[in-house]
Design goal:
The protein is mainly beta. The chain contains one helix and 38 strands. The chain has two domains: 82 residues, Immunoglobulin-like, CATH 2.60.40.10; 358 residues, YVTN repeat-like/Quinoprotein amine dehydrogenase (Methylamine Dehydrogenase, Chain H, 7 Propeller), CATH 2.130.10. Helices cover 4% and strands 56% of the residues. The longest helix is centred in the N-terminal third of the chain and has 21 residues. The chain is globular.
Amino acid sequence: MKKGINFWLLIGCLSIIWACEELKQVPYIEFDARFNAPSIVREGDVVAFSPSFSTTGARNFSWDFGITTAQDDTSNAASPEYTYTKYGVYTVKMKVNIQKTNGLQKDSLSKEIIVIPPTTTPAAFENYGKITSDEVGYDMAILPDRSGYVIVGKSNINELLIIKTDNNFQVLENEGFPKTLNYVTNQQVFPKQILPTFDGGFLVVGSIVSNPNDSDAFIVKLDATGEQEWGEVINSLKNEYYVSVLETLTGSFIVAGSSEDVSGRSVIVIDQYASDGSKITAYTVPTASCSSCFAESMALTDAFNGEFTVVGVEVDNPVLLTFSDPETIDSKRVLLNINGTAKVIKPLSDGQWAIAGLTYTASTDSVHAFVAKVGSQPWVANLKMYSESFFDLEEDDDFNIIAVGSHYNPLSGVDMLVAKYEGFTGQELAVKLYGGLQYNEANGMLINDAGEVIIIGGNTNRNSPLGKLDVMMIKLNQNLE
């Protein structure tokens, strides 16, 4: 009996030792400074900040909400709230005393928070389209008699859409508008510009895309009623694009665009057409003059002498090429201080240029907008919120520069972006977002005789169960409201 007791005591002790050996040591949790906050908010939103689990037990909180010009952008609360009153990208920093392996230590963490303006519905706007198909506006112009506007867009992907309206945005249905042209292709059509011509008609240029590796440039001449007079599609094995057109005093048309060289690199092309549609000259800018260059826009420098300037991108920088005639480059300027693409160029009243477009950062894959003045008094104004681009601009009667484009964000999808800059210094005066639906893009603009800002683009059709797009035309006053 005594031996049996000893045996079972031995078994019990061994079991206890075995169980103790199976216990895993609980690791020490290294606490550090971390906090929770939304990555993007709107102006006027109350933003709540709170410490994360790893910051449990922290003491002596110190918050800085990133407003460098403010004195009240700090807090010592553990879970503070803050309201941002101006859009921008702010760096929020939290400092704490926190328990670490070597005792109570100071720790901190910084995060970026993006603040964007509120998205509002414009007071004056009009939509054109059908609930069963997509329609988007790309460009517009004031009618020669100043009685209204002409719009170019696309319908059903492959149809060229022409709309005439009066000054109140009402379609001139009694003249047969809107009209569609599908002579070009069964593929996607992308008109870039519509130009009122001296004979009362219109000229449209753009490109036809069947896939990302197959694009053809097109040009079409319309009469005053929107009926086609002549047209041409540049159909080859290369990718071709027409982006801008102007009319000379002699009645010929100069078209800027892009094509490809034998190695597949993009090159700028300048084609000249007679009033009857016959091609007069076809000039390709040599790669020695502009390597890997892509054209985006064109404007007259000297109408009397026929001088014009083409803007676009050379590799990763905006480039301006000034031509004394359609086959002669007079000067070239590359803006090495901007990493991006210029989408538009317009002459200013002081003899200088304004350009606008987008910048990109390869390390973050982010896209932001910029406006720049090019000439004897240059400046660059960068707009950085979430993701945005400028596509068009104009100078107003007060010599300010107004730019329009699109802003992309996770709160409201795509919004129309409108910004105003002081023309002499580049100081930012206003930034507005318009939309309110899932998709609202701005592609072009003009300033009418009353000084009002007219914007053309597209938005989601409110009545379409399929979420189709409509042409959208909005009117803003000089305060962009």
